[in-house]
């Protein structure tokens, strides 16, 4: 089992580019099915959720390739939010 606090410290990496997106700030859950539907990743500009623009990326759960010890590997799979130029390098 993995807790939210354990997920939040893992880096999110887009495998097609080897690019680091950031870390999980929240989860979206389907209350009827009791399943996680999306990972929410806060973008650069926000400091500890307090300062800066309120930008985030929603990553569908089915875009996750693997959850490792230190990273979560995801695939782009046509997600237009992952094409933004202001993401972390």
TrEMBL record:
Q: What residues does the PRC-barrel domain cover?
A: 4-75
What protein name applies here?
A: YlmC/YmxH family sporulation protein
